[in-house]
Design a protein that fits this description.
binds magnesium ion; tRNA N(6)-L-threonylcarbamoyladenine synthase activity; single chain; EC 2.3.1.234; binds adenosine-5'-triphosphate; 333 residues; iron ion binding; TsaD; 10 strands; ATPase_NBD; five-stranded mixed beta sheet; binds fe (iii) ion
Length: 333
């Protein structure tokens, strides 16, 4: 089974061909990061324009590198949502046009299902499993009993982890996106600043990062007023320690309670070195639960993950038709 995946939910225009849902034949990502950097965030109008300019080239490149013809494809999988509506529409319409032109089945994929299925490109999925999804727009613990079935057992009540990283980075005058910069600084600094951890109610697997973000901003503001200097490295280290502590503790607790065989890490923040290391350390103490962490290139937005998730849906007989529309607030479960 060869599936072409197309992803345009945010600021990367991506296309990939995946064989049998597990083997990457090509994985092309055209990032628009440089265009959005000077605005300190993704500008939706600019994102849409870039997608229009890049999409044909990116798909062609994915097909060429894979060495697969459209006639050989089994299906085309595309991100339906969530994301920026104008950005999603470019991918959805490209997918519809190709599916129509070549008479191929069309499969609609949830962007977060894609992030989770990035793991299937590196390891067999063993159910039941738990996935910690940490990205620019999502922070969720997703329980899966079988392929294609997602149960969200915890989610953020305010900011996503990646969003908190980007906002704190901005306060520290670091370039956008700030996640990787904080990660780098955190490894050079020391945890010297006492910051809150939002555990929420006993037994809750929900998250909250806005209190932590405010605490960082207030600490920086107060120090400035008093003319005191806070080393950005120590602030980065302290902030990162708080985020990781909550993410890892809740993931480990949920993995135990739900008696899972596997824990999967997913989403852009999964690229965080501190998070990867701490999750590895804590999971090693839980004998018998396998931890899967995809390589960095599969953690951030890409289309191989969409093709991987799309392959499973295709095999389950799920099909979209020519009425498929982008859904900026599509639900996972
Ligand atoms: P979503 O997937 O929720 O729709 P998105 O696609 O914009 O959102 P991703 O591309 O999956 O999000 O992830 C981007 C986020 O990951 C950004 O917030 C970025 O700062 C963060 N990020 C990337 N690398 C790191 C890192 N090393 N440490 C922390 N955060 C990181
Ligand atoms: Mg992105
Ligand atoms: Fe994403």
């Amino acid at each position: 089974i060869y599936v072409l995946g197309i992803e345009t939910s945010c600021d990367e225009t991506a296309a990939a061909v995946v064989k049998n849902g597990t083997e990457i034949l090509s994985n092309i990502v055209a990032s628009q990061m440089e265009s959005h950097k000077r605005f300190g965030g993704v500008v939706p109008e600019i994102a849409s324009r870039h997608h229009v300019e890049q999409i044909t080239f990116v798909i062609e490149e994915a097909m060429n590198q894979a060495g697969v013809s459209f006639q050989q494809l089994s299906a085309i999988a595309v991100t339906q949502g969530p994301g920026l509506v104008g950005a999603l529409l470019i991918g959805v319409n490209a997918a519809k046009a190709l599916a129509f032109a070549y008479g191929l089945p069309l499969v609609a994929v949830h962007h977060i299902a894609g992030h989770i299925y990035a793991n299937r490109l590196v390891a067999d999925m063993k159910f039941p499993l738990l996935s910690l999804v940490v990205s620019g727009g999502h922070t969720e613990l997703v329980y899966m009993e079988e392929h294609g079935k997602f149960q969200v057992i915890g989610e953020t009540r305010d900011d996503a982890a990646g969003e908190a990283y980007d906002k704190v980075a901005r306060a520290l005058n670091l370039p956008y996106p700030g996640g990787p910069h904080i990660d780098r600084l955190a490894h050079e600094g020391k945890v010297t600043i006492d910051l809150p951890r939002a555990w929420l109610e006993e037994g809750s697997y929900d998250f909250s990062f806005s209190g932590l973000k405010s605490a960082v901003l207030n600490t920086l503001h107060n120090a400035k007023q008093r003319g005191e200097h806070i080393d950005p490295k120590d602030m980065a280290a302290s902030f990162q320690a708080s985020v990781i502590d909550v993410l890892v503790t809740k993931t480990v607790n949920a993995a135990k309670e739900y008696n899972v065989r596997q824990v999967l890490l997913a989403g852009g923040v999964a690229a965080n070195r501190g998070l990867r290391a701490e999750l590895e350390r804590k999971m090693a103490e839980l004998n018998g639960i396998e931890l899967v962490i995809p390589p960095l290139s599969l953690c951030t937005d890409n289309a191989a993950m969409i093709a991987a998730a799309g392959t499973v849906l295709f095999e389950q007989g799920k099909r979209a038709d020519m009425a498929l529309n982008a859904d900026p607030s599509l639900e996972l479960a």
